[in-house]
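#help-structures

NK: newbie question. if I give both the sequence and a SMILES, will the prediction place the ligand too? trying with zinc ion
OV: yes, paste both and it writes out the complex. here, I ran yours:
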Amino acid sequence: MSLRGLLDLGRAAAGLPAFLRHPLGLAAAGAAVAAGVRRREAAFLESVERLIFAAPCSPLARLLRWAGCEAGDLRRMVAADGVEAALARLRAAGVWVSAEELRGRAPLRRSGLTLELAPRDFDNPLAAGRIAGATSGSTGSALPVRYSWPFLAGEAAHELLLLASHGLGDAPVALWLPGPPGIAGLHNLLVHAKLGRPPRRWLSPSPAPAAGSGLPYHADRGWRVMRHLLPRLGPAPEWMPPERAAEVARWLAESPRPAVLKCFAGAAMRVAGAAAAAGLDLSRHLVLAGGEPLTAERRDFLARAGLRVYARYAATETGFVAGACPAGENGGDMHLYADRLAVIATEQGALAFTSLSLAAPKVLLNVELGDHGLLRQQPCDCALGREGLVWRVAEVHSPAKIALEGIKVGEVDFAELVAGVVRELGGGADDFQIWLGDGANGGARPTVVLSPQARIEPAALRDGLRRRLPALAGGGALAAALWCDAGALAVERLPLRLGPDAKMRRLVRLQRSEPAARAGSDPPPPARPLLPGGAGGG
Ligand SMILES: [Zn+2]
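OV: that's the protein plus ligand as structure tokens.
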């Protein structure tokens, strides 16, 4: 482990006892969120002044200077029209950052301004005593992100209100999220530890890292030592691979009280399938699913299986973003955590995030993360709405495009289409992936990969795609002709890939210049999973 890594772990560990000393209760959580809502205009101005204007070399300070915006201008705009209107005016003036720019994959270019960026340029200069995690990223490789203890305490307040809004504030909780060094499981565990009620079980879809694997091994060992010293942290991760979903379903079924399972949306599908196969009734329990969108197809399946699944929205750069209202439609209508974040949507629906907290891991000002969604304001009488969280976000998805032979279609649409054909042919969700390499025209070039275990012939899948593609909105007919008839779309049988966080995703982004699909070559490098809806989630 690097010296920096050791120092970080040591500093983070030093803050833990204080973090755990005073568990957060419901009244204090509500008061904290309501106070945040009341002072969000002041918090916005304070964040911009102390985290951006006070760091004149930071990319956001340079962008504001380029736009001719000074602190006084911002104060006037916020006083006149509020935070969101001020942000919309800033965006119109060119003050925004794309997901590619945030992650350092493209320089930020505006007329007369070019900034070469690295992800650390957006780190919060004030956050200290931090716990580091690696994100799998919405569209790429691992980025280190550091959460401070005050930040995690704020997340705990949101989480408690979310559980309370569903009537499950003191329910037993299990996590089915990856163990260290991934951030999603640890993040959720620490939040529950702050509530004084650690999860009953931490089921990890990834095995404990092997000795000799470097940082992952040390992170795992370090965590096991820490929780031994501080039992209030809760359980150590137990390996529970995806194919053992029936055991997770049984844990829920056997819980004497209504229980909560936190996992990724794909894992919720497996639990629902396993429960239906075993005749288990899970309708008393709640699944909070993040990481991937709850598409209409998924919601139908879950509803048929009798599983109550509600969405959570989190991204590594922001932490928790939103949690689903119990009264909302389809389990996907979420209260935005607007005491700590301001979000505006572009005309195309792209969500742009602004951090309102001095404890935020990243300094964000109209920063896009690659997600689209619908925003609105609506009062509500649930535990989240009562504290003033009136902003809602729904239909969160990633509209990234697949491109081949000059034809672009939506990644999520294409993935749904392939899933439909695979199902028609008698296959399941674990039988295929779509691997995306870099296309010449800025889109991702797809290869459809069938698992060696899938009882589907590649030729049959190719024929099925040819039949179904013309129905795909926005380019489907041309794609059918140019991708299938001209033989451009590859369908191959290869072992499927897990992401670095051990998640099995439908969409896997390949490293630049990595051959898309060549059987019999060297062992594949780690895949870069694509994660609509952000990474910190679960
Ligand atoms: Zn509500």
